[in-house]
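the two lines:
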Amino acid sequence: MADAVETLIEELAKLPGIGRKTASRLTFYMLKQPREAASRLSEAILQVKDRIVFCETCANISEGPQCVYCRDPRRDDALICVVEEPSDIQVIERSATFRGRYHVLHGHLSPLDGVGPESLTVDRLLGRIQNGDVEEVILATNPDVDGEATALYLQRTLNPLGVRVTRIARGVPMGGSLEFLDELTVGEALTGRREL
Amino acid sequence: MRLTEVGLDHFRNLASVTLEVSPAGAVLVGSNGQGKSNFLEAIHYLARFRSFRGTRHADSIAFGAQHFRVEGHVVCGTGQSRRVAVAADRRTRRVSLDGQTVARPADAAGSVLAVLLAPTDLAIIGGGPDQRRRYLDGLLTSTSRRYARALPVYERALRQRNELLRNWPPVAGPELASWDETLIETGMVIVLARAVIAERLARRFTDVGAQVAGAVDRLGYELEYRPSVPGSADPASNAESVAASWRQALTESQPRDQRQGWTTVGPHRDELLIQLGGHRLAQFGSQGEQRTAAIALRLAEAELLESESEHVPVLLLDDVFSELDEDRAGRLLKWLGDRHQKFVTTPRPLPQLGNGLVQWRVDDGRIGPRLAAA
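prediction for all of em together
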């Protein structure tokens, strides 16, 4: 096979979720496209690397010193939602239920991977709370072992600062039927029940 | 519950065959390496959908073949009959019930109930406490989804916490404590389940032990669960107070944990004490006593399974009799009676096995003609 084709296949196959088969499909698709299409794609990839930095306030991805959520004057300064990754913000934004600010940790506590609080943006979060008028911090780390430990760590660290700390709920999904849920999820939902 | 027919295709070294099975079961006679245990493994596949050897499904495929298939026709006490089959190629395994592939193997669980007694069981009695914990984990993981979920979560949190302790002192207290709540939450599930099953095994274990040992060991066989966290195994106390005693135990052990570099309390330190006349069999038991205890434990498990499912499980006895002296072997057979369908492997024909058991010769993977009834 031509070297140029082989090179592109190899590069694409390095991407997450893309195997050699898909990589070669994408490559032959690009071969059939006009030159401008290829140029737009390669330019877009370069722009991501050249223009995107991390927000100085919340560590989200951003095109300037401040990300779109930190710049938005209509958002509530009293509320901060803490997430593990920038991609988690996209999920919460799509729900269109949260109008506060964000804070991205860039990971979770995991001693086995050598990740402690100092490797996350915890200090910066503490600074934001000490200097601002934050009333509530919502911990939206993943509900797995490491995410839970990270949430507990943050809760203990933030409590002395006199701010309200909450954790996203676990339990029965919308549109779900109890009949088809496993007993662990139902147990969680019962433990985390609320007054109506 | 009894198998009436067993079909094999490309399973390990066994020749493809369909065998009619007598209600009493069968004795498989043959030298080592001929395939006797492979036949028991095939039946075990029908019960648990995986190998008792802990190997991958692909390892059970005969050399040169692309897949294996095991099928069993089973009739339970109520007269209802079912057809269970397990097939696997190098990538996937399929379980089917009466010709219909089931979406999740769990949906077909319990269609065949089987308990295996094997020489390797000796390690449960004679080995370290980790062997007995692994035994409880295996038993509970296959019977409780809640347990099966809690165990890996507990183990992950434990590894994370131990990693922090190993690198002590640079790490601060709050970071260590952040793993504690997960340990407590999942640890409580683990300990309570272990306590309940140990309690239910204990009486049966003592009964069976006495029957098999006869007058030889006049002192009783006993089984007792000793949780590492004090007060964590009392099903009567409420969750809040149990969690509180866990928190206290973890706090109290913290200086020691820091010194030693790992978490020193919790279910990963539990012991399932197995004793004869007040002495631990792991340290003080003779080979014969340990073997008797191993058999009693598996048979107690079979009774437990029966009381929960209301079906009499099939017994798979892998080379069990050759290790026992004649008295014990005789008493074991008498105790077993003909309540269970039995599949027995042995290098030599067993003269004591008179009661309707068909003897099969296993030779180079062929399960062959019957010997003259002994």
